[in-house]
């Protein structure tokens, strides 16, 4: 992807028939204001100046036919998103008005923007660094409030600041080493103990930031959780209680659920896709057989399996058979219908979390949750167990304000390896010239995160994920 002095235009809002009260066409570049003046008629004596909203009509420049009644927002360089002249036509929502306005802009000389080109120009013009640009994509695509907050923290420089500090420290060390190479006779000997201490601190900070990679991926992509078990153990009731809806049909007849039913939830800031699967059993019903196969497939592809059993029936051979199929995956055992065997649960007391250590499972015990799905009991305990399973208690969802993505993690991993190599070079008492090689590699890797040392192909890959209007 490349930019130039051309003026670009695109629809900046979602376009849905008969929905959306406002549709925005964004134009950025040297000809943005000229295009606006050619298309926008303002009644009265309104002043065309930066950061002022004008009222008027979009008209065809040749026929003078009115296309839409609209507002025009002027944002002149450098006080704009791209640091170029930017105008926005705020039209009526729907499909036709914004498409007609966009077409008129293109006829006036603008080019249709590529995905992410507005943000790319903001990056190239120095308004954003690359971590902030990526945070914008994360913010637009956020699937939970926590994901949005983490993206917003990145937009405000929460990641860029420590990365810049790490890079600056590496540059300081490199400068000291190169000074000893060039002016060895004029300077005191290099303090290797201090250099080693600074490298150790750098590695500690890099490792700390790297630890957020998996958590960041969870916030972006979410967690897939499959509820599996025999027919009629209460899987659909559990989904309905958890999602506070009647997504799944619940009856006393085994085999009611014939296909995978999905529900989208947010737990501890993590988006969760819950899959209620068909009861797994041997059956001659061809339709149910298909449902069972889909259940097995869903379980195999899930990030976490909730193996649900009936508290009245206890642990059965059928439960054991299902367990054999999913035991190698992250697993929580759900003992449902506990209200039918424990009076305290039926009276409204919250079912407890415990280890199912007395069950006849020839494997290490699993975390077990007692639920009474029909009474909406045990859901909070289940959510706590899921967070515990995902996070192992090391990161609290509410406190995470920094989470790197895969590209940033790869660059940080290279920087860490380079810094470790410098430590090895010092330990082996190699000449100072060898120190500089890996220090430069670490500096380059950290610069890639910020966008200071990045190739055009990397930019293409990053900004192609954006929507066209962003």
Concise description?
The strands form 2 sheets. This protein has a 7-stranded mixed beta sheet. A 7-stranded mixed beta sheet has the order 9-10-8-11-12-14-13, with helices on both faces. It has 470 residues and is α/β, with parallel strands linked by helices. The protein contains 16 helices and 14 strands.
Write the layout of secondary structure elements.
Layout lengths: L7 E4 L10 E7 L3 H8 E2 L11 E7 L6 E10 L10 E7 L3 H12 L3 E2 L4 H8 L5 H11 L4 H11 L4 H23 L9 H19 L2 H9 L1 E7 L5 H9 L17 E7 L2 E7 L9 H16 L2 E7 L6 H10 L4 E6 L6 H4 L6 E3 L11 E4 L8 H13 L14 H22 L4 H19 L5 H8 L7
Parallel strand pairs: 1-7, 8-10, 8-11, 11-12, 12-14
Antiparallel strand pairs: 1-2, 2-6, 3-4, 4-5, 5-6, 9-10, 13-14
Q: Uncertain segments of ≥5 residues (pLDDT<50)?
A: 247-259, 352-364, 393-400
The side-by-side strand order for the widest beta sheet comes to 3-4-5-6-2-1-7
End-to-end gap: 14 Å
Report the strand count. Answer: 14
Q: What form results from the Cα inertia axes?
A: flat
| Structural class determined from secondary elements | alpha/beta
- What percent strand? 15-25%
**Number of contiguous helices:** 16
Helix and strand string, N-terminal first?
A: EEHEEEEHEHHHHHHEHEEHEHEHEEHHHH
How would you characterize the largest beta sheet?
7 strands, mixed
Mean pLDDT: 80
Helical residues, percent = 40-55%
Rg (CA only): 30 Å
Written account of the structure:
The structure is a single chain. This protein is α/β, with parallel strands linked by helices. It has 16 helices and 14 strands. The chain has helices at 32-39, 96-107, 117-124, 130-140, 145-155, 160-182, 192-210, 213-221, 235-243, 286-301, 317-326, 343-346, 379-391, 406-427, 432-450, 456-463, and strands spanning 8-11, 22-28, 40-41, 53-59, 66-75, 86-92, 111-112, 223-229, 261-267, 270-276, 304-310, 331-336, 353-355, 367-370. The strands form two sheets. Strands 3-4-5-6-2-1-7 form a seven-stranded mixed beta sheet. Strands 9-10-8-11-12-14-13 form a seven-stranded mixed beta sheet, sandwiched between helices. Helix 14 runs antiparallel to helix 15 (432-450). It is flat and about 80 Å long. 40% of the residues are buried. Mean pLDDT is 80; it is low at 247-259, 352-364 and 393-400.
């Amino acid at each position: 992807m490349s930019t130039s002095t051309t003026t670009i235009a695109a629809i900046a809002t979602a376009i849905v028939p008969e929905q959306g009260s406002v549709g925005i066409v964004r134009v950025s570049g040297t000809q943005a204001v000229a295009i606006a003046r050619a298309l926008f008629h303002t009644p009265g004596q309104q002043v065309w100046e930066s950061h002022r909203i004008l009222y008027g009509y979009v008209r065809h420049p040749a026929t003078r036919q009115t296309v839409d009644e609209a507002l025009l927002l002027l944002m002149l360089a450098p006080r704009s998103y791209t640091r170029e002249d930017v105008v926005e036509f705020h039209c009526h929502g729907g499909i036709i008005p914004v498409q007609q306005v966009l077409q008129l802009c293109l006829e006036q000389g603008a080019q249709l923007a590529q995905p992410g080109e507005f943000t790319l120009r903001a990056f190239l013009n120095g308004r954003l660094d690359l971590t902030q640009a990526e945070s914008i994509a994360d913010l637009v695509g956020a699937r939970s409030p926590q994901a949005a907050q983490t993206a917003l923290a990145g937009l405000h420089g929460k990641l860029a600041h420590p990365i810049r500090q790490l890079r600056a420290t590496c540059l300081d060390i490199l400068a000291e080493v190169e000074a000893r190479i060039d002016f060895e006779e004029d300077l005191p000997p290099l303090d290797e103990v201090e250099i080693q201490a600074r490298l150790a601190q750098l590695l500690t900070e890099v490792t700390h930031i790297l630890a957020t990679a998996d958590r960041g991926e969870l916030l972006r992509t979410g967690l897939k959780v499959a509820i599996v078990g025999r027919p009629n153990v209460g899987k659909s009731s559990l989904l309905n209680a958890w999602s506070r809806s009647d997504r799944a049909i619940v009856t006393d007849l085994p085999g009611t659920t014939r296909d995978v039913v999905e529900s989208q939830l947010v737990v501890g800031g993590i988006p969760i896709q819950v899959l209620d699967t068909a009861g797994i059993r041997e059956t001659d019903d061809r339709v149910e057989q298909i449902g069972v196969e889909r259940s097995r497939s869903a379980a195999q592809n899930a990030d976490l399996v909730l193996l649900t059993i009936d508290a009245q029936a206890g642990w059965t051979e059928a439960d054991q058979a299902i367990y054999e199929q999913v035991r190698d995956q992250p697993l929580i055992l759900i003992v449902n219908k506990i209200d039918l065997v424990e009076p305290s649960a039926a009276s409204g007391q919250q079912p407890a979390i415990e280890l199912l250590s007395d069950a006849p499972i020839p494997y290490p015990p699993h975390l077990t949750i007692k639920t009474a799905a029909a009474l909406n009991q045990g859901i909070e305990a289940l959510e706590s167990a899921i967070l515990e399973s995902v996070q192992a208690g090391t990161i609290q969802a509410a406190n995470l304000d920094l989470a790197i993505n895969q590209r940033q993690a790869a660059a940080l991993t290279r920087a860490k390896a380079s810094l470790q190599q410098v430590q090895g070079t010092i330990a082996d008492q190699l000449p100072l010239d060898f120190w500089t090689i890996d220090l430069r590699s670490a500096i380059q890797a950290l610069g890639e995160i910020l966008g200071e040392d990045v190739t055009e192909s990397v930019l293409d890959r990053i900004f192609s994920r954006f929507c066209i209007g962003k």
